[in-house]
């Protein structure tokens, strides 16, 4: 059972374009939504994150849009650069007691063409 | 470098052998997590520690897997009698639980140990 569904599986964008990756979740108990960036052979690196009481968060060229009623959130990368080529994972955290369980989406392989 | 470190980075072993991985979290972090990532998939939660206490284990963690964090600092993950299906990247992450009860949601990942079972 996939608790966080991510699309598309792969994405090709021209340099300078906008990259958009979408995620949807079912469990309303999730209370934090981070995005991770992963380069080949490396561990995931935290990119940006949002709480469900906020509709948008922007950090530099990266923006998360969050729609609580639709249970959807998305990552927008503005002015995409070849160095942004990586795999991106959306995730959701559910707090159960003192435990924080991080659930990942399936990942999106992003390629930025120069 | 004050990030999460993992050793070894790569491990090739024959089916049936035992392997052990080590994770050193960020020094002030009191929570440590283990995840497994197979090719083309997102990481899957295996287990987590708060200080030295192992508070939760996933159903993915069979009896052949054991994790420890004896002094609340580094952690080890051991796989006994490895199987080809154990081939994956094993990731460690850490975070900080504040004593006042508020906590940081951010988990910081290490570079992982890639295990290949032949």
Summarize the model shown:
Chain A is mostly beta strands and 114 residues long.
Overview of the molecule:
The complex is a heterodimer of chains A (114) and B (118). In chain A, 0% of the residues lie in helices and 61% in strands. Chain A has 114 residues and is mainly beta. In chain A, strands 2, 4, 5, 9, 10 and 11 form a six-stranded mixed sheet that branches. The radius of gyration of chain A is 14 Å and the shape is globular. With 118 residues, chain B is mainly β. Chain B is built from no helices and eleven strands. Chain B is globular, with a radius of gyration of 14 Å. The interface between A and B is medium-sized, with 24 and 29 residues.
Structural class of chain A, by secondary structure, is: mainly beta
Distance between the termini of chain A: 37 Å
Q: How many β strands of chain B by DSSP?
A: 11
Please report the number of helical segments of chain A. Answer: 0
């Amino acid at each position: 059972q996939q608790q966080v569904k991510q699309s598309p599986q792969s994405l090709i964008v021209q340099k300078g374009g906008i990259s958009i990756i979408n995620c949807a979740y079912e469990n309303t108990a999730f209370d934090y939504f981070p995005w991770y960036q992963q380069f080949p052979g490396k561990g995931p690196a935290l990119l940006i994150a949002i709480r469900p009481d906020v509709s948008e968060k922007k950090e530099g060229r990266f923006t998360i849009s969050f729609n609580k009623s639709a249970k959807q959130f998305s990552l927008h990368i503005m002015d995409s650069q070849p160095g942004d080529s990586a795999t991106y994972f959306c995730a959701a955290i559910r707090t159960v007691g003192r435990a924080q369980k991080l659930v990942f989406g399936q990942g999106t392989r992003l390629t930025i063409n120069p | 470098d004050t990030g999460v470190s993992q050793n070894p980075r790569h491990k090739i072993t024959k089916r049936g052998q035992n392997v052990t991985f080590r994770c050193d979290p960020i020094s002030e972090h009191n929570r440590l997590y283990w995840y497994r990532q197979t090719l083309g998939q997102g990481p899957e939660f295996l287990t987590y520690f708060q200080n030295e206490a192992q508070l939760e284990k996933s159903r993915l963690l069979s009896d052949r897997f054991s994790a420890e964090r004896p002094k609340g600092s580094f952690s080890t993950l051991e796989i006994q009698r490895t199987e080809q299906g154990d081939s994956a990247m094993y990731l460690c992450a850490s975070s900080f639980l504040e004593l006042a009860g508020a906590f940081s949601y951010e988990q910081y990942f290490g570079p992982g140990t890639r295990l290949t079972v032949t």
